[in-house]
Amino acid sequence: MPLYEYGCPACGVFEAFLPMARCREDVACPQCATASPRVASAPALGVLSGALRAAHAANERSAHAPRSTRSGHGMGCVCCRTSPKSGKTRQTADGGKAFLNARPWMISH
Where is the Putative regulatory protein FmdB zinc ribbon domain (predicted)? Predict the structure, then answer.
């Protein structure tokens, strides 16, 4: 639950944990029980760690422009590969794949 600030006309500002669904309601002051409206205050972003701030920033980016796996090439794309071919396979005349040093009785997936 978030921590909200409320302003009592008699006692001043106090804080209360409330569910987000009740954020617009007036809350009774803990000292004098007067109905008090919520006070607009700045979030305490300065007390967050750098890692947590980076996580919030990444979450904001993904909310506006989510990265799709279908945009671009998938993992192991042959045209984007930077390493040379391994040389452990060769293509047969009928288009099949043959392993050079494999056991002939094993079936490939």
Answer: 1-41
| Burial of 65 from C-beta contacts in 10 A (0-12 / 13-18 / 19+) | exposed
Q: Closest Cα to residue 43, out of 52, 33, 34?
A: 52
DSSP string over 1-54? --EEEEEETTTEEEEEE--GGGTTS-EE-TTT--EEPBPP----GGGS-HHHHH
Cα–Cα distance measured from residue 62 to residue 49, given in angstroms and rounded to the nearest whole number: 20
Confidence band for 11, pLDDT divided at 50, 70 and 90: very high
Which residues, including other chains, have CB under 8 Å from residue 11's CB and lie 6 or more apart? 29, 31, 32, 34
CB atoms near residue 29 (< 10 Å): 19
Q: Which two tokens stand for residue 72?
A: 């671009």
